[in-house]
């Protein structure tokens, strides 16, 4: 017998494009190749306002309307894959015997995206009520847990699990990060929900699948054949070894309202005296700086990962799309990310204020230019490398890294049942200090999800200055 919270499989189907059948090869560029050592990215949507009767406790599944819902989700997914057909393919490896190299590409062979229907004795309150995000409950709601992007040669590039909960539905999506980044992923989800909701009345976007290369001679990019061997050796990092075992890692979401964000932004800008152009601090920079100070202050109070003379890195995942000259197409489907970082000593973080920190984050964003991006690509081509999970956040260190974006349209995904009540992430890429940025459920709000030891969160929650940002 399984546990009461066990997720039970009902069916698994491979969903293929409804009409698109032209075979295509899409060569991966440097942005796509670097994440091969990451796990699949995972995002899920929780719905409670379904029209059909919801499953009751003890029922395997409620066939009154649920079967039609599942069938319609599959059909609409099939039509969506007509427009996003690479997600129905697999990764391919071509061996070049002339110079003992390999190249990676998306083989659009229509093997299909995976669609899983499941049930679970999990209520909506089990997900929403706890003070800390119950990852042990949420993880089984996602497929392909622990699967690495390089495994896309045999694994589906997209897997979707629709789980019937007690009082709701959870749609968990796992997508290969070498095929698309967050911008492209939400472009796909937005289109799928639109087609599901509106059928023939929805006009989908037209994704641009042609990858950007420095010049024609770089396509396909040739990698040392030893890279294929490295794929087999890449492993998910172990838990942070520096923090003692008594410090458990948990994840918590902090909700910043539009009003309180405006207050933080105004306060941060009032602290900054600068003659530089384009130095008006943004809402997100003010929020992230506020969080950075609170984490550092909490660590100091606990004497955990704090050293006044030691440096902490705050990393930012930044999109290249609008920084290029000319910009990449708005509908560019693939990866286009650059990692930027700010480094400051712990005593600087606490003494100079969050206006100072926000300005450091702003400087990183302003330095993110066409010239700098292309220079980094040229360096990578000369000496290619693959990042592994935990390498950026640094399993075993005190760094903070912000990923995702509050500009993604997450809460607008209405499949015909209304807006989701929550957006949750799977275990992919999570380690101490990993911070996920997302829009809040109310327009103009921002959600910040962070993974930290529970003791650090408890200290943050006792920090009046930090918690004042959440007062009404």
UniProtKB/TrEMBL annotation:
Q: Per UniProt, what is one Pfam family of this protein?
A: Transferase
Q: Which Gene3D superfamilies match?
A: Chloramphenicol acetyltransferase-like domain
Instruction: Give the organism's phylogenetic lineage.
Output: Eukaryota, Viridiplantae, Streptophyta, Embryophyta, Tracheophyta
Per its record, how is this protein called by name? HXXXD-type acyl-transferase family protein
Name the InterPro entries on file.
CAT-like_dom_sf (IPR023213), Sec_Metabolite_Acyltrans (IPR051283)
Q: Which GO terms describe its molecular function?
A: transferase activity
Q: Which UniProt keywords apply?
A: Transferase
UniProt key word Aminoacyl-tRNA synthetase = no
């Amino acid at each position: 017998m399984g546990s009461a919270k066990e997720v039970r499989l009902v069916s698994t189907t491979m969903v293929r494009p409804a009409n698109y059948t032209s075979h295509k090869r899409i060569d991966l560029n440097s942005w796509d190749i670097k994440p091969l050592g990451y796990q699949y990215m995972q995002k899920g949507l929780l719905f409670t306002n379904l029209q059909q009767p919801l499953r009751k406790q003890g029922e395997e599944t409620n066939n009154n309307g649920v079967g039609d819902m599942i069938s319609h989700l599959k059909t609409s997914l099939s039509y969506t894959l007509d427009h996003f057909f690479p997600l129905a393919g697999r990764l391919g490896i071509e061996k070049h015997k002339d110079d003992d190299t390999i190249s990676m590409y998306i083989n659009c062979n229509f093997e299909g995206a995976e669609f899983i229907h499941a049930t679970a004795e999990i209520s909506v309150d089990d997900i929403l009520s706890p003070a800390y995000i119950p990852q042990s409950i949420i993880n089984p709601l996602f497929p392909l847990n622990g699967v690495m992007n390089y495994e896309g040669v045999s694994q589906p590039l997209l897997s979707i699990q629709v789980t019937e909960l007690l009082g709701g539905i959870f749609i968990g999506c796992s997508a290969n990060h070498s095929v698309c980044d967050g911008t492209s992923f939400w472009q796909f989800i937005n289109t799928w929900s639109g087609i599901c909701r509106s059928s023939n009345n929805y006009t989908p976007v037209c994704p641009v699948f042609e990858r950007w290369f420095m010049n024609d001679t770089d396509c396909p990019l040739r990698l040392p054949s030893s890279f294929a061997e490295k794929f087999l050796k890449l492993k998910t990092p172990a838990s942070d070894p520096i923090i003692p075992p008594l410090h458990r890692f948990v994840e918590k979401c902090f909700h910043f309202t539009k009003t309180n964000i405006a207050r933080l932004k105004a306060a941060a800008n009032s602290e900054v005296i600068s003659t530089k152009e384009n130095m008006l601090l943004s809402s997100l920079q003010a929020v992230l700086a506020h969080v950075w100070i609170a984490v550092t202050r909490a660590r100091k109070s606990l004497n955990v990962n704090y050293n006044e003379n030691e440096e902490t890195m705050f990393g930012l995942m930044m999109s290249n799309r609008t920084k290029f000259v000319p910009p990449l197409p708005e509908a560019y489907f693939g990866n286009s990310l650059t990692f930027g970082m700010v480094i400051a000593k712990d005593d600087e973080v606490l003494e100079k204020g969050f206006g100072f920190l926000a300005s450091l984050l702003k400087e990183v964003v302003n330095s993110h230019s066409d010239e700098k991006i292309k220079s980094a690509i040229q360096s990578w081509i000369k000496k290619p490398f693959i990042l592994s999970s935990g390498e950026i956040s640094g399993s075993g260190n005190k760094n903070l890294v912000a990923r995702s974006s509050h500009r993604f349209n997450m809460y607008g995904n209405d499949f015909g049942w209304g807006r989701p009540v929550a957006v949750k992430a799977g275990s992919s890429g999570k380690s101490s200090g990993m911070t996920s940025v997302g829009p809040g459920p109310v327009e103009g709000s921002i959600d910040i999800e962070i993974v930290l030891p529970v003791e650090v969160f408890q200290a943050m929650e006792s920090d009046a200055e930090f918690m004042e940002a959440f007062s009404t």
